Amino acid sequence: RSRAEVEATLRTAKLDPAELLPAVQCLAFGPQPPATECCLLQLEPGLCAELEAGRSLVIRGEKDEQAVLCSRDKTYDMKIADTSNMLLFIPGCKTPEQLNEDPSSCDIIHSQIAGFSNNYWELRRCRPKLKKLRKLLMEDPYEGPDSQKDQALTFSKYTTEDLLSLIQASEEEILHHLQVIDACKIEGYWRVLEFDYEMKLLDHVTQLIDSESWSFSKVPLRTCLEELGSLEPRQAIIFKHILLSYGRKYVDDGEVYFEMLEDKICRAIAQMLLKNAVKFNLSEFQEVWQQSVPEGMTTRLDQLKGLALVDKSSRPETILLLKVEDLPEDNQERFNSLFGIREKWTEVDITPYIQDLCGEKQTVGALLTKYARCSMLNGVKVYNSRRPIS
Predict the structure, then answer these.
(1) A Gene Ontology CC term for this entry (predicted)?
(2) Does residue 105 register a pLDDT over 60?
(3) Between the ranges 45-54, 96-105, 255-264, where is the mean pLDDT highest?
């Protein structure tokens, strides 16, 4: 188009040229059909900053999984959003701001359309899908250097790179969850300890603390590893892992010490007592539990949140093992599972089992409103399923 043709079009459209920018961009399709393989991705400012800083965004997911996009520390669901307006890809197209900044812009700019789309990928922040991580590592838990499986090197092997390719979560979220599930790196591979083996090692540590009359708040790392080295040859790294899992590391006067965590030790011993029982009389369990923990430690039921469920409606009251990590990861499936176990829940009882489902800026109350129905039972607010449970 010439300038005269542009001005004629403006007059036909009854537009005042004085109200418009002087530069005109004329768009045209090229001689070849525009490419349609292009995809548009809508990014929030934080993700744009990641790319501008030279960092990568990675799409993760196997063939049977919904794709997610991961930055260094966040995970996003990817969904296609349709638009009624055709979106054009125009290399070198200038925005009004750029035209204003460059007064010398050509009077008429001819731009060629390279492609188009009627939809784009929309990102929505989501919880990382980490349940698979524990499942993979539990395929072959570490039972010690003398186990036949490890000697034969037949266990499932997962390096950090393997997990990054298999788990739908960002690198920081994966590494943080490896700490949460107390995984350790042995000969370059991430492993979780077999529970009975872990309890044996923890018992060695607590017995040493007792025999040396150490304070649980000041366990010396070097001496601990020297004393325990004879019990588990070549296993200094494993005992250090036990101290890291059940204690808090600190340095005093150049020496490394650990403050043992009472709540975590009591919780592990409770799991050991409950794991082979369908239900346990609550009062009997509390008595046995207190007798089983190291002397000087005190057991409390609030140490068992997300691990065990107390039934106060039965006579006598009972307790059973119910680990939150064994429940489904999907919101609706999680609630279906919980309401299959118990028809009515108080908010106090159900919170430890749904807290991890809360997304960014989401509360337990919002989840209960969406997936449960509230009622009163003997003056207490309880929640039951919104749909029939088969």
Answers:
(1) chromatin
(2) no
(3) 255-264
- Segment 144-153 mean pLDDT: 70
Alpha helical stretches, state H, the chain? 3-12, 45-52, 96-101, 131-137, 148-151, 160-166, 171-180, 195-211, 221-228, 236-246, 262-274, 282-292, 331-341, 347-354, 364-371
How large is the average pLDDT for residues 102-130?
A: 82
The model carries a pTM of 0.83
Residues with Cβ within 8 Å of residue 248, at least 6 apart in sequence: 258, 259, 261
The Cβ of residue 266 has, within 10 Å, a number of other Cβ atoms equal to: 21
Residues facing residue 42 across a β-bridge: 122
Residue 278 and residue 247: Cα distance in Å, rounded? 30
What is the set of domains in the chain, with CATH numbers? 3-125 (no CATH), 130-192 (no CATH), 195-260 (1.10.10), 279-385 (no CATH)
Least confident of 24-28, 89-93, 153-157, 358-362: 153-157
Query: What's at 372, amino acid-wise?
Result: A
